[in-house]
Design a protein that fits this description.
Mean pLDDT: 85
Strand order of the largest sheet: 4-3-5-6
Strand content: 15-25%
Number of strands: 6
Structural class: alpha+beta
Number of helices: 4
CATH class: Alpha Beta
Helix content: 10-25%
CATH topology: Glutaredoxin
Number of domains: 1
C-alpha cells in the first residue's frame, strides 16, 4: 500500500503533486472555538483520536494522557476530537467535555471542538484520514469512538487503530515514528 503525504484541505491544484508535504491546510476549531491549523504541529508525530465521554472505551483517556506525558517531549502530540455520532455518547457542551476529561482522567492534551467523523457532514480531516488509512476490508468510515490515527512527522498516515486497540498497544509504532528524522520541507 502506498502512503501519501498529509494534504490538508485538499485543493484541486494539489491533485497530482505526489510527495509534496502541504501541511497547514486542515484547520480545526479548538475547545475555545478558535481555528487551529494542524500546521501548528508540523514536524511532530500526531495521534488523532475521535473521543466520547460516555462510552465503554472512555477509560482510554487515561492511556492517551499517559502517552502524551511520556512522549510529548520527544515530539508526540495527542489530539482529541469529541464526537457524538455513536450512540449519543458525547452529548455535553465543550466545557462539560473538557471538564469531564480533566477531572476524571487528567487530560491536558489538545481537545478540539466536537466534530462529525462519518457521513456527509464528516470533518474534512477525518474524510482524509479514513481515505488514507481504510479500516477492515477497506472500509473508509469510522465505526465507533476511539478510532486512532498515527500521523508521522512528514504528514503521512502511518497507521489506523480500532477502538479496541488500547493506547499502550501503540507504543512500538509511536516510538518508531518518533525515531524517524524530521523531514526537510522545501522553503
Amino acid at each position: 500500500m502506498s502512503i501519501k503525504p498529509l494534504v490538508l484541505a485538499p485543493q484541486p491544484e494539489d491533485a497530482h503533486r505526489g510527495g509534496l508535504y502541504t501541511a497547514g491546510r486542515f484547520s480545526s476549531l479548538d475547545g475555545q472555538g478558535r481555528s487551529r491549523p494542524l500546521a501548528d504541529w508540523r514536524g511532530q508525530v500526531a495521534l488523532i483520536v475521535n473521543t466520547a465521554s460516555a462510552c465503554g472505551f472512555t477509560p482510554q483517556f487515561a492511556g492517551l494522557q499517559q502517552l502524551w506525558q511520556r512522549y510529548r517531549g520527544q515530539g508526540l502530540v495527542v489530539i482529541g476530537y469529541p464526537c457524538n455520532q455513536f450512540g449519543g455518547q458525547d452529548p455535553g457542551s465543550q466545557a462539560e467535555i473538557e471538564s469531564f476529561c480533566s477531572l476524571n482522567y487528567g487530560v491536558d492534551f489538545p481537545m478540539m471542538a466536537k466534530v462529525e467523523v462519518k457521513g456527509a457532514g464528516a470533518d474534512p480531516l477525518f474524510k482524509w484520514l479514513t481515505a488514507e488509512a481504510p479500516g477492515v476490508l477497506g472500509t473508509e468510515f469510522i465505526k465507533w469512538n476511539f478510532t486512532k490515527f498515527l500521523v508521522g512527522r512528514d504528514g503521512q498516515v502511518l497507521g489506523r487503530y480500532g477502538p479496541q486497540a488500547r493506547p499502550q498497544s501503540l507504543v512500538a509504532d509511536i516510538e518508531a515514528a518518533l525515531a524517524r528524522p524530521e523531514p526537510v520541507v522545501p522553503a
